Amino acid sequence: MTLDELKQVTIDYYVNLQRIKKADTGNNPELEYQLRIYKSKLSSLGIPSEEYEM
Fold it and tell me: Which residue in 20, 11, 21, 22 sits closest to 52, CA to CA?
């Protein structure tokens, strides 16, 4: 997998988590944890996560 492919997969996963969060009406600690993890991964790849937040 190239770096560009890794970046795209990470962005796609983060966006999917954002969609789940938007649709979820309850408290979901695992979802919040996953969002923090992927936000850190985006940051480590030099991608600002703010551009992909809903």
Answer: 11
Phi, psi for 47 (deg, rounded to 5) = -110, 120
Question: Cα(50)–Cα(1) distance, rounded to whole angstroms?
Answer: 25
pTM: 0.87
Rounded Cα distance between 28 and 10, Å, is 21
Report whether pLDDT(13) > 90: yes
Contact at 8 Å (CB) between 39 and 53? Answer: no
Taking the C-alpha atoms of residue 3 and residue 35, their distance in angstroms, rounded to an integer, is 21
28 in the Ramachandran plot: left (φ > 0), alpha (ψ -120 to 50) or beta? beta
